[in-house]
Design a protein that fits this description.
Layout lengths: L2 H10 L1 H11 L5 H5 L9 H26 L1
Amino acid sequence: MDPALARHIMAHHREENLRLQKHFFPHVSFEKVFGGREQDGPGDDERLRISRERAGQLQKRVIWDLLERL
């Protein structure tokens, strides 16, 4: 998923997510529950590259699985 879109979705649902976190996980930080971004983690470009690479791998696997069934 595009990192900007993921941030937009999380921002849109932030209030509801805060309520869920406080109700079900009161002793766990919001970031631990909803995957807050690590400061030293990969940047948006790298995350997008990794996501696209993984999607390509999954598509190849699905194609091979379908070909094996023929």
